# Entry
Amino acid sequence: NAGVMQNPRHLVRRRGQEARLRCSPMKGHSHVYWYRQLPEEGLKFMVYLQKENIIDESGMPKERFSAEFPKEGPSILRIQQVVRGDSAAYFCASSPVGTLTQPQHFGDGTRLSIL
Amino acid sequence: AQSVTQLGSHVSVSEGALVLLRCNYSSSVPPYLFWYVQYPNQGLQLLLKYTTGATLVKGINGFEAEFKKSETSFHLTKPSAHMSDAAEYFCAVGSQGNLIFGKGTKLSVKP
# Structure
């Protein structure tokens, strides 16, 4: 009965490299949400995906960031040409429905550090 | 638009004392309200949620919260703090899919 699985737990990249963060939702959950947590801040919504579809990307930076949730496999948050300001904890949450009648379940996050 | 304000970024209580963490929200539609707890280097764990119905909501670990529409508040309480309650607590509001989080309150518990 695994929860939301995120990997890697820690990721170090140099400026200009690419970062790929993976999220496997809980079994039976087809709705995935990505959030970013900057130091001393709460979580900020980035993107909401359902299998093969981006439903809401209103919180995603316009450049360098992309997300996908393929029919098979985990959801991927991709950051191209990383900069120091991308250093943060990135959390994935999943839900069986696309409304908040059921709570979102969170993974342990990926802590991204940019050198 | 929705927003959440958590009053007090740090709260310190003695073991056995009342815990009160404050949360006020703004929402133009009936909100869903949540409290999550985060231990160091971990994800968020749901403490309790309010969707509809009874305004006093009981959660895990002895926590409860009361939805007060007239005050737009959803404060989190626990009658007697334990050392294991030391963590960061986040209030969140939503109406559709994504959640809007407050900045969090770090709770310290003194022996």
Q: What stands out?
A: Chain A touches chain B at residues 4, 6, 31, 33, 35, 40-45, 48, 55-56, 59, 91, 93, 98-101, 103-109, 111 (CB under 8 Å). The mean pLDDT of chain A is 93. The longest strand of chain A covers residues 43-50. Residues 69 and 75 of chain A are 4 Å apart (CA to CA).
